[in-house]
Design brief:
seven-stranded mixed sheet, globular, 22 strands, 4 domains, Elongation Factor Tu (Ef-tu), domain 3, Arc Repressor Mutant, subunit A, 620 residues, six-stranded antiparallel sheet, alpha+beta, FAD/NAD(P)-binding domain
């Protein structure tokens, strides 16, 4: 009934949606198979996109021609740029989203994407022949042929939901789990493990007293994620902040004997950086309160997401404890919090393209690789979809370096180091974070994406206009000298030292107390010259002036280390012949099978002296 496809994507979450869009926009015929067409791009946990380091990933996805940024802009209820008190490497965009509009907009965009077909069914196995994937089989008895398959199963693989001492199979609340795939992959030789994540209760906003909480408004002048012509928010919903207290902690502690986390019912490893509330009160017992973010789920609903109160304690304990939080005294629950265990496959079994090493043309993306977060999933899905499509059309793969994108850091970390707990992206994981800013994602990635046929020519033209404008601003600032009598009053008001002779305007801008925005406000002549340029070009010019030394230093370091990426290692190289390297290094290198010396140098247990031996062996 169904034709043979270039790419079959299994799973309609954030990874699956980006994989589908990328492969289809590269010209591949794509079939998206999902268990429920009504939950495509469902925000299973908090209704938000972006945040520290995660916002950079969303901007990178957008710069590459993915859809997450556009959907986030169209369905946002609040926008905030985080970490503005720090340097631009730390600035991170975040939106609070309308959960229902988000899923609806994603589905509409996929339906309007040429080359995409849909099928509602459960995939129970993959078909292989001579070590190569040939399609999938479904619970309805369908055998669907494909040249490549991308598995993005999220938390559904043998998913087990826990609420107190009760547990039942499920991929998320009110949705069944998926069985069969794990068992088959194990037979094919894949290693697998179990991980755990959780979600907080959802409550009725009408039962809360927001006057007892701190209001958290969006930015006064909100920006947006996408580099396209999406519209910034004109009105925004507020979030609120409140706190737990010692009484809440005592009630939670009274239920620990019935907690699946502490009774041993849950075997999977949970996310270190997003622990459940019962985990917090045990691990951080010295703290007498924990922050709770009260987040609206959308424009037209009273449902509230209680961020920071993730729990799998029994329902009676959840309810009793949450009522003791300030503002929650009369709370009404819509649904309890729960934990979910699911299967994942250690990502060291993948190539940098996200293709598996064991089965050709089979790709993994998202939580199946041990990650957590919509953004991490979307970035992997995009790259898996791109590489599945490129391989089908016999083109060179696209692999992002660590100095090119947070997505490059994410995938390299997974492939090279693996993970034994849900992996979450942080700016601290990126050694080149001054290069990998959210503001320059288009400059880093759009030309590259356009060269493979993904990012549109319109995106490339918009980037070129922005870059020309930035260069014009830099030229003006570097060539314009300003006299003391024209600028000293402004400098005094800005809290910085006055000048005694002419100085280039760029030198004035390089001062930490001075911004181009303040110059436009304080120096009318300069305002007349700069106001013709758009905000993004002005921002780029200012960052380049203020941080030029740091940017150049990091670029030189990246270029130096990238030389190791040019030293290729054959797939069948026998490390056991190199008796000069340590036993641990031989074991790790044989297992992970790095493709370059650069990748080998990042493997835990491989020392600099081991790398020196490899370089000598390869004549370097």
């Amino acid at each position: 009934m169904l034709k043979e496809y270039d790419v079959i994507v299994v799973g309609g979450g954030h990874a699956g949606c980006e994989a589908t869009a990328a492969a289809a926009n590269l010209g591949s015929s794509v079939l998206l198979i999902t268990m429920n067409m009504s939950t495509i791009a469902q925000m299973s946990c908090n209704p938000a996109m972006g945040g520290v380091a995660k916002g950079q990933i969303v901007r990178e996805i957008d710069a590459m021609g993915g859809y997450s940024g556009i959907v986030s802009d169209k369905t946002a209820v609040q926008f905030r740029m985080l970490n503005l008190s720090k340097g631009p490497a730390m600035w991170s965009p975040r939106v609070q989203s309308d959960r229902w509009l988000f899923a609806q907009e994603w589905r509409l965009m996929l339906e309007q994407t040429p080359n995409v077909d849909f099928w509602q069914d459960t995939v129970v196995g993959i078909s292989t022949e001579n070590g190569k994937v040939t399609g999938v089989s479904t619970s309805l008895g369908m055998e669907i042929k494909a040249k490549s398959v991308v598995l993005t199963n999220g938390t559904f693989l043998n998913g087990l939901i826990h609420v107190g001492q009760k547990n039942f199979g499920g991929g998320r609340a009110a949705e069944r789990n998926s069985t069969g795939i794990t068992e088959q992959l194990k037979e094919l030789g894949f290693d697998h493990g179990r991980m755990k994540t959780g979600t907080p209760p959802r409550v009725d906003a009408r039962s809360l007293d927001f006057s007892k909480m701190e209001e958290q408004r969006g930015d006064e002048f909100p920006s947006k994620f996408s580099f396209t012509s999406t519209t910034p928010l004109k009105k925004q919903l507020s979030c609120h902040i409140t706190y737990t207290n010692q009484h809440v902690h005592d009630i939670l502690a009274s239920g620990l004997d019935r907690s699946p986390m502490f009774s041993g019912a849950i075997e999977g490893t949970g996310p270190r950086y997003c622990p459940s509330i019962e985990d917090k009160i045990v691990r951080f017992s010295e703290r007498d309160r924990h922050q709770i973010f009260v987040e609206p789920e959308g424009w037209n609903t009273v449902e509230i997401y209680v961020n920071g109160f993730s729990t799998s304690l029994p329902m009676d304990v959840q309810f009793k404890a949450i009522k003791e939080i300030k503002g929650f005294e009369n709370v009404k629950l819509f649904r309890p919090g729960y934990a979910i265990e699911y299967d994942y496959f250690p990502p060291t079994q993948l190539k940098h393209t996200l293709e598996t090493k064991l089965i050709e043309n089979l790709y993994f993306a998202g939580q199946i690789n041990g990650t957590t977060g919509y953004e991490e999933a979307g970035g992997q899905g995009l790259m898996a979809g791109i590489n599945a499509s490129l391989k089908v059309h016999e083109k060179q793969p696209l692999i992002l370096r660590r100095d090119q994108a947070y997505m490059g850091v994410l995938i390299d970390d997974l492939i090279t180091k693996g993970t034994e707990e849900p992996y979450r992206m942080f700016t601290s994981r990126a050694e080149y974070r001054i290069l990998l800013r959210q503001d320059n994602a288009d400059s880093r990635l759009t030309k590259l994406s356009n060269s493979i046929g993904l990012a549109s020519n319109q995106r490339l033209e918009a980037l070129e206009i922005k870059e020309r404008a930035t260069e014009q601003i830099l030229k003006h600032l570097n060539e314009t000298s300003i006299r003391p009598e024209d600028v000293n009053e402004f400098l005094k008001e800005s809290g910085t030292s006055e000048i005694s002779q002419k100085m280039k305007l760029s030198a004035i801008v390089s001062r930490p107390q001075v911004s181009l925005d303040s110059i436009m406000k304080g120096l009318p002549k300069e305002k007349a010259k700069l106001e013709q340029f758009d905000h993004h070009s002005i921002e780029q010019a200012e960052i380049k002036i203020k941080y030029n030394g740091y940017i150049e230093r990091e670029r030189e370091m990246a270029d130096k280390l990238n030389r190791l990426e040019d030293v290729r290692i054959k797939d069948d190289f026998d490390y056991h012949k190199l008796t000069s390297i340590s036993t641990e290094a031989r074991e790790k290198l044989s297992k992970i099978r790095p493709t370059t010396i650069g990748q080998a140098s990042r493997i835990s247990g491989v020392s600099p002296s081991d790398i020196s031996v490899l370089l000598i062996h390869f004549g370097r």
